[in-house]
């Protein structure tokens, strides 16, 4: 998992909770990296799981809620860090439809070793978009938060709904259906 996920997670904890809590999390969890992350580094995703689990224990906030909140936070940070991805974008369905073919393609140019989730998008007319998230890391809660962050960014939280379906079996994935 790319280090930007770790650095932004710790930034969220620092912003929403406190810098002291960040230090406490790093000190209390046995992290192979020692908790020293760089945005361009690559780290075992088990470390983010351990950090989120510890944060949940300390705050009483369920892990899925923390991951979803992180996804929303992360979307806002992506807007700040990578404004070129958002230039000329005014529709969340168009933007979310472009993640795999545009954004992930650009990320892989910069970081060929990145192990990105797969996001398949299918439009059903002008008013519905289906996104299917697949990843062996099973971070559907983060994906949900990212989608909610997109709806907030584009100012459509009052005019669009999002439904989530977790699909298990031979092909585990999460399906999000966004409707105007």
Walkthrough of the structure:
With 180 residues, the chain is α+β, with helices and mostly antiparallel strands. Helix content is 50%, strand content 15%. The chain is built from seven helices and four strands, in the order H-H-H-H-H-H-E-E-H-E-E. Strands 1-2-4-3 form a four-stranded antiparallel sheet. Strand 3 and strand 4 form a beta hairpin. The model has no long low-confidence stretch (mean pLDDT 93).
Could you list some keywords that capture this structure?
180 residues; alpha+beta; four-stranded antiparallel sheet; 7 helices; 4 strands; 50% helix; globular
Q: Would you kindly provide a brief summary of this structure?
A:
With 180 residues, the protein is of the alpha+beta class. The chain is 50% helix and 15% strand.
